[in-house]
Amino acid sequence: MLFANGLTALTILGVAAQVQAKTVFAHFMVGLTAGYGITDWTDDISKAKAVGIDGFAMNIGPQDGYTRQSLENAASAANSIGGFCLFISFDYLSGGSWDAGAVVDTIKFFEGKAGNAHCRYNDKVIVSTFEGADSAPQWADIKAQTNCFFIPDWSSRGPGGIPKDNIDGAFSWDAWPHGPNGKDAGDDSQWVTALGGKPYMMGVSPWFYTDLPQYNKNWGTRGDDLWSTRWMQAAQIGPEFVEIISWNDYGESHYIGPIRPGGIVANAPRYVSNNPHDAWRDILPYYISFYKNGGAPPVTKERVVYYHKPNPNSACSTDGTAGNQPGDTPYSITQVSLDQISVDTLTTGPATLSVQIGNSPATIFQVTGSGATHFAVPFNGGTGPVVATLKRADGTVAIASGSTISTDCAEGKVNFNAIVVGSP
Fold this sequence. Notes:
By secondary structure, the protein is an alpha/beta fold. It has helices at residues 38-50, 67-81, 100-114, 139-146, 158-161, 186-195, 226-237, 269-272, 284-293, 333-336; strands at 2-4, 23-29, 55-60, 85-91, 120-121, 124-130, 149-151, 170-172, 200-204, 209-212, 217-220, 241-244, 303-308, 340-347, 351-357, 363-367, 371-378, 384-392, 395-405, 419-422. The strands form four sheets. Strands 2, 3, 4, 5, 6, 7, 8, 9 and 12 form a nine-stranded mixed β-sheet that branches. It has a five-stranded mixed β-sheet with strand order 1-17-14-13-20, with no helix packed on it. It has a four-stranded antiparallel β-sheet with strand order 16-15-18-19, with no helix packed on it. A hairpin with a 2-residue loop joins strand 18 and strand 19. The longest helix has 15 residues, at 67-81. The radius of gyration is 21 Å and the shape is globular. It starts with a strand and ends with a strand.
């Protein structure tokens, strides 16, 4: 994979093959499925499986009365489709801590419903968490009663502070950059070292922006080159597992699944309803194959995918959005979010990429080889429809269009969520 932004170019074409089996999951917010039926689960699982995702990590909190019905419907759909698995991730933050007895009961309930669709590792059902490190001592008894393979996300403790008793591996939620920087893989390397040979589950995410006053959440991180960067890093590090964050967490803007209006929480429609992310899945089979096999796979369909926020930083109010995660060095979102169109191409050989904003002059790049290439195009004050065209002397290879950069902001606030567009 090549990155090209006029300044730098990075390549991972020389990554060595890994011998261990590798698996890709996507984090799924079950709390947003109150209106789901089996047909909805079937559609989501089918779409995920089609791009190479192996299973869903089913995030559940203790507060939702419909959780078991959703789990049962998901298991039914997964078993009907086949070749796709599910495991529970107990959320210890959204609705408070879990009672240990309820955890045991839920694991056993789901094992009975999921059957062959229950994700397993070393012949044990996989179980994870979203935080809950304060409840770490409970897991000795929970594991004794369920014989689960326990891979918690206790990222708040960091790789050096995670309680290591009773864990079989660890999942890191640290998938986004800090401050006005790109994301590096230093934290991932620290997790691998700290685990001492136990499996590492690496978080990979394309974006983060949230503005939900009812939850006191109003921050964003730099996502402009993140999707390509994190998959590059996954191929380099070669963890046993990758967990995509997320399939359907609309309120945090990192969803790669289809937008389902019933799952959008209050105050999020402003920045979610017109911002599809489906095209991020278009290049996912290539990235997943690269990660799993340790080398560039052949390109079976040439593509161009681009993404950007709909409004420039200075267009309207930022609504006080911070440019970092809570507890990090404070920045404004305008110091972190770039006025940039990010473009990913998949090609079988050299080609020319043209990216145009409205009536502004097109920016031209040369794609020099085959595989995946990433480009960055600054707004430079341009507004209007965006068109990205991949072509050769004998004609157009692929074209993506359908988004607009505008100074007209919904509710008078800059939308810092991405809109993602791909060629047919």
